[in-house]
Known about the structure:
elongated; mainly alpha
Amino acid sequence: MPKVDRRIAKSQEAIKNALIKLMSEKSFDDITIQDISDRANVSRGTIYLHYLDKFDLLDKLIEEHINEMGEICEATSSVEYKDANLPWFEYLESNYLFFSTMLASKGAPSFRRQFHEFLVEEFKDEVDTSQGKNHELNEDVLLQFIVTSYVGIVEWWITNGMPYPPQVMAEQVGILLERNL
């Protein structure tokens, strides 16, 4: 893997942070490349060097977070739900501005959909309706119930200013997952 120039990485990080901060202040539709350029303290040309437009920038930013969440899932795939949830909630906490912006009304509506689709893929192998407590349930219904609940609890936690620490959320959500999967 080629080594990324630190100046490029620094510029890209400044551009991404500028977009998130601007989205927390106003609608994505009202944000211009000039706004991003001014906030990131880079030229418009620097932005266009890395991104096609503001939509490409947002897509890449969302993709980066979805990929990171995928890595967390992969790293925790063999542990109990309570333990697997802790890195998730710590990641959400450490990226609070991004998630609160994306899940707020001024955020990107596509993020919630992509987050939901990502979780469907992650949970689909966990759903078992062939026996046990979920024996007579429809697999699709159960999967949608679990995923929608998970998205909802994350959204509630973020939009309410994370009223409980990640450890409490991981334990509580882990117990709920164990009861329902």
